[in-house]
Design a protein that fits this description.
Number of strands: 3
Radius of gyration: 27 Å
Shape: globular
Strand content: under 5%
Distance between the termini: 71 Å
Largest sheet: 3 strands, antiparallel
Number of helices: 22
Length: 490
């Protein structure tokens, strides 16, 4: 049994999402206004003077129009400029809603920051004189959390490293590295996140407890999602559903969205059914009334054929009632992170995507995919950058799933199945055929699509021939090198 997690409160990653929403051209005006209000409330509540200046200063604020066009750097420039380069500048557009600058508010926050850091400094000095190393470490930990709370990236990292170097408890070391990962995620520093994830994995493998192992799964899965490694992220995120406690990283509702999207685009059909379609944690959210009830009562089964006969025909994707995901692991237990704090999410498009793909209703699948792009991919800071790739890969998956069952398919018939024009389907398939993603040819004269999948034996034979040719080439080069060296000795 491990100790309770430490340093898990800051930074508040929801503020990074609000910053993204302000710069996102796909966000609606009400969403931007809500994000602005929540960002302002967060800055005031956490007394984030450094972040407020960095974002909103009228001369060099990175989310104000004047700041976007200015070559000036914010004072205190030792801090990394990751907020704009990793959050706002990715969109290559000025913010659609500026943060108003209030000089009086900034001075007030800065004064409060100075007083708080002086108090922490006095506490650390007194602990060094009168108390033991435990009290000194507690004061150092407060300093690190303070800088993480107010948005000073470099100072927070230095403070956490100082605490890490003086800490001997493995669990605390892991918690510190997880806090560093969250700072990297907040500022969009993927290189730092990657290094810190590897660092945390090494610590966990050296003897980390069960809870921290499971928390790291969610951290690693989210990082892999941001770098488009959906095939590696899917198993980690799906495994995290049943053991999720990392509420400082994201809400359970968001974890469900990330898990379903990653699984839908990367898992083979058999695994897709077992881990997504029939998973109790996902059925409890995306299923119909009976499926939700069976998942919540533990009656759902992921065995062969379980629930196939109950799969609904997702013939249309209409907005449903927004709801909050239910974490099955917390039912009947006390939880310091109550689910009522999560924003309700309408999972109808996501449910339609999963069901229509699995049952082969491709017209509904395309409609659901468009709805998922609009409601999820375009609104989330982790998904936005890869939305085009995701939609393309899901279209490819739909095409592959239909074509693998036929030797010859009518072009018009397939276009009707997907609810698109023949011209669109012809052009879209041609892109995938040209890069060998779909093994087929299009006979436009006769309006046919002919698949030409090689059988396993022919494929193995071709692979052996290619590998043999490569080996012979290497041996020939090696023989020439040996002969040349022999002639030099002679």
């Amino acid at each position: 049994m491990g100790s309770d997690p430490q340093y898990a409160k800051y930074p508040d990653l929801s503020l990074a999402q609000h910053i993204f929403t302000l710069t996102n051209p796909s966000s609606t005006e009400p969403l931007r206004q809500t994000a602005l209000q929540k960002l302002q409330n967060g800055i005031s509540e956490h007394k984030m003077a450094p972040l407020y200046r960095y974002l909103a200063h009228p001369t060099d604020g990175l989310l104000n129009a004047q700041g976007e066009g200015s070559s000036a750097k914010p004072s205190g420039g030792s801090r990394s400029g990751s907020v704009t380069s990793k959050i706002a500048a990715k969109l290559h557009a000025a913010p659609l809603l500026q943060i108003p600058w209030d000089e009086h508010l900034y001075e007030k926050l800065k004064t409060e920051n100075d007083k708080e850091i002086e108090t922490i400094q006095k506490e650390e000095e007194e602990s060094a004189e009168k108390a033991g190393e435990t009290e000194v470490q507690a004061a150092r930990g407060k300093r690190a959390e303070f800088w993480a709370r107010v948005g000073e990236k470099d100072k927070a990292l230095s403070a956490y490293e100082a605490v890490f170097d003086k800490t001997g408890v493995l669990g605390t070391k892991i918690d510190i590295v997880l806090a560093i990962i969250r700072i990297g995620i907040f500022f969009g520093d993927r290189q730092m996140v990657k290094k810190s994830v590897d660092r945390a994995k090494a610590l966990v493998e050296s003897g980390g407890d069960w809870d921290r192992r499971n928390r790291l799964k969610a951290y690693q899965g989210l990082h892999l999602l941001t770098v488009r490694s959906y095939n590696l992220a899917a198993p980690l995120l799906l495994d995290s559903l049943s053991t999720f406690t990392s509420y400082e990283l994201c809400s359970y509702s968001n974890l469900v969205v990330y898990s379903v999207l990653a699984g839908s685009v990367s898992l083979k059909r058999v695994d897709f059914k077992t881990k997504v379609v029939d998973a109790p944690e996902i059925k409890a959210i995306l299923g119909d009334g009976e499926e939700k009830l069976s998942a919540l009562t533990g009656a759902a089964s992921s065995g062969p054929g379980a629930g196939d006969e109950e799969m609904k025909d997702a013939s249309s994707v209409t907005p449903g009632t927004a709801m909050t995901a239910v974490n099955l692991t917390t039912l009947g237990t006390s939880n310091e992170h109550p689910t009522e704090t999560e924003a309700p999410i309408d999972f109808t498009p996501l449910s339609g995507l999963v069901r229509s793909l699995y049952v082969g209703n491709y017209q509904s699948f395309f409609l659901a995919l468009a709805a998922v792009e609009e409601n999820f991919l375009c609104q989330d800071r982790y998904l936005y950058e890869h939305r085009g790739w995701f939609v393309r890969e899901m279209r490819l998956r739909g095409y592959q799933q239909l074509l693998q069952s036929y030797r010859v398919v009518g072009l018009k018939s397939m276009a009707t199945d997907f609810g698109v024009s023949v011209e669109y389907l012809d052009k879209d398939l041609a892109k995938f055929i040209a890069v060998d993603r779909i093994p087929c040819t299009i006979d436009r004269v006769n309006g046919l699509i002919e698949t030409n999948r090689p059988d396993d034996k022919n494929k193995q034979y071709g692979d052996v021939v290619k590998q043999g040719d490569a080996l012979i080439t290497k041996l020939q080069k090696y023989g020439q090198a040996v002969r040349l060296r022999g002639s030099e000795r002679g």
